[in-house]
Each structure stands twice: as C-alpha cells, then as structure tokens.
Design a protein that fits this description.
Layout lengths: L1 E4 L4 H8 L5 E4 L2 H9 L3 E4 L16 E4 L13 H17 L5 H5 L12 H6 L10 E6 L4 H13 L3 E8 L10 E8 L11 E2 L13 E2 L3 H5 L26 H13 L9 H6 L12 E6 L8 E3 L17 E6 L14 E2 L2 H7 L12 H10 L3 H8 L17
Helix pairs in contact: 1-12, 3-6
Length: 401
Amino acid sequence: MIVDFSGPGGWSHALTRLGVRDVGLEWDEWACKTRAAAGQLTIRTDVALYPVWPFLGRTTGLIASPPCQAWSMAGKRLGLVDQPLVHQAVADLAEGRDTRERLLTACRDQRSLLAAEPMRYLHAPNTAGKPEWVAMEEVPDVLPLWRQYAVILRRWGFSAWSGIVSAADFGVPQTRRRAILIASRTRTTQPPAPTHAKFAEPATLFGPGRMQWVSVAEALGWGATDRPVPTVCAGGGPGGGAEPFPSGSRKALADARDRGTWKSHPRSAEQERSTHAPVASPSAARWAWSLRSNNQAHAAVRGLDEPAGTLFFGHRANECLWVVSPVDGQEYADGPAPEPIRITAAEAGRLQTFPADYPWQGNKGQQFSQIGNAVPPRLAAHLLAPHLGRTLGPDDFILAA
C-alpha cells in the first residue's frame, strides 16, 4: 500500500500513469471531490488526527507534500518563525514522544506543524513496520527540515537524499523550485536525473542528452494544430464573481495565437535547430503575449516560448495573468494593446502537467487553489519511478496524456 498526503492528485496521477495506485489522506472538501472525479482512492481526514496503526507494516511507500501556505513566498511565511518548533516535533516523534499538542500552542501558524506529521507515520517500533521508501516535497525553505528527516532515516537504515530541484528540468513548463526528500531502505537513493535543460544538450559518452525546457506555448498547444485551446472566458472570478477582464481580450489572445502573431524571443540559428518547441511565424503586430505570475511589482513575466514562472494562487495578488508588451520598443500596430486576461484553470492545470480534461471540482477559486498547491505529476513521476523499478526518459509521461 502507498499512502499519500494527497492534495488534488498530482502524486496520485503520476502513480496511475506508472501503473500503481495509492490511498490519499486529504481534508479539503474540494480536493477530495476532484480526486473522486479522477477515480482516486481517498480518505477524507485530518492527517494530524488519523491513527497510524492501520498502516504499520502494510505501507510500501509514504508520500508527503504537507500544506505549503505557512512557508510559501505567497503567504506570510510564519512557518519560518515556527521552524524550531517543527524541528522539535520531528525529533520528538522520531523517539516515539508525541509533543505536538504542547508545541502547537506556541506556533504562529498552526499549519506549520503539519510538516512534522510524516514522522508520525514513519516511526514504528521495528524496521518491518516502516515503509520501504519515502518521497516528500515542499517549498525550498523547508529544505532544512527535510535534511533533519534524512539524518533520522539514515539512522534507521535508509539511504536518503534531499535537495532543491527545478520542475522545468523534468519537462514541466514551469520553473517551479521545490525541496525534495527521497529515501529508501531497499535501494541506494540518488538525486533525480534531469531530462531537460534551458538549452538542448546532445548525448555524450558520459550520459544521455537533455531536451530543451518545455515552453508555455508547447504545453498549451499554441502554434500546434492537434490540441484544442480555450478561446473564450467562461466568466467568473477566482471566488466565483464577475470576470474583471473584457471577454474580447481572450479572443484577442486566441486570434493572435491562431495567426501566429505572438512574438517569441530572438534565438540563434543553433538554438532554433535544437528546440523541439513550435516557432511563431512572423507578423506585423508589435506586441507580444507573456504570462505574469502575479500582479505584484516583482512578479516573474515569461514569454510564451519560455516555461512559466511558479504558479501559485490563493488571493487576488496571486492571480496569473496574460499580458502584452511592445516588441522592440515599437508602438502597437493593431491599435490599443489588449487588456490583461486571467489564466484559466484548464491552462493552469496544463502548465502543472495535468491532463487537459482533469476534472477539477469547485468554483474558480477552489480550482485555482488546488492547482497551485499540487505537485506537477510529471515531476512526481520522475521522483517515484526509481522506487517502482521504472526509468523515465524525456519523452515519457508526455504532456498530451
């Protein structure tokens, strides 16, 4: 049995593609409904309250992506303030002492202590009661905690690795950086081998080549003819309210895509030969579409021929927007620039490498919250494959699936 602190199904979808199933533990109502619609096994529960005895000696793998809101750059980051308390909880649980109730009263954000919950599921009176392997994911600031887990797991006979990876290096069209812990008591654990790079790399005597990072345009099928793309706004803001941007703006985005008038960044001839992404055709238009990761001053803005920045949602400042800017400092050739448009849930899901028809449940706000908090299935597949005796290449777990 594989047990998963689950969310809406990023890890679970990866496991399904790899030919196995998991049992998800999830509290959020809409994440549970999404998992049910996707055919995934789920126990709706608070992982901090659910008993661990049903899993002792029966768990092959433990997967954990504790809620990131307490640690994320998108929030107040009170998890950093609470970090010493979380470290203490992990150390105590590893010794069989449950001090969570006392430590919780001192936490500035009660969600912080959820990062210690995996240790409660890992601790067992003997080796036979422990899972064979572990995979955990969180925002980069949680890496010191994962390193603490790794030290404890090595003491228990596991091989363990912890570090930071970029999802773009594994074919995810998003430069999403995450702290990863992988451990096993049946095999030597190694860092996951990237399959993609900013620029394509040929194979050498020392190893296989790497494909170029997957772009936003490629992931969404823009410039291709075999994948449908939404062309109109469905209406409704993140919380289910009115759509704040003119419906004609998305039509302008679709028309620009269909005419090939969105502008890509200049590339050298060598880069053009090496890329597997579609190349936009020339146009007289003097503006280019980009994706802005949120509407704050420091937001990442990426062209359509690049991976997106990290997608995160949760409140109005975290909306991801399609925006335009002049090309080469020129004025707009086709009149006023189109208004910004909010990314759709379907588009956001694709940029997380979920299938285009993944059955997100709830209103827009509930869907976006699930998508932003999910583990990209393609990244999850590369982290899980070695535990399941699989080797994934750059073309495996294709985006079109």
